What does this fold into?
Amino acid sequence: MSNPMPADFAPDSTTAPPSPNISLIQAAYRAFHSRDVQGLLGTLAPDVRWVHPDGMADYELGGTKYGHDGVREFLARVPRVLGGMRLEPQEFVEAGDRVAVFGERYVTSVRGRTERMKFVHSWTLRDGKVAVMEDIFDTVLLHRLIES
It folds into this structure.
């Protein structure tokens, strides 16, 4: 059976398995990659806070969205602004109920131009679900791509 997780998500056979918190975050990324909105929502608390830089407000992608409905609205808005996006988490750092993920995203404009951008995601967990997800990235670079 093939592993549905990209190689960089898969634990190295010589290391311990990921913690429950990191496993949950990895499941969220897998759901995002496969465009499985229900799977993504299954990792999130019903009252999740989904936070993106205020600098993306011009595209209705900035600020904080609340609950599953807010996340659905955000995800529905993305294809109106971008032609595509692939996230590649590279490092997971856990401290208590928080997991920071450092990675790269490949974002494609609606006109077909793709750029690589670094990101940091801060995930705060509560009772085995994501309570807060904050996306940190270069909004100026993303604005330039959207407008290109």
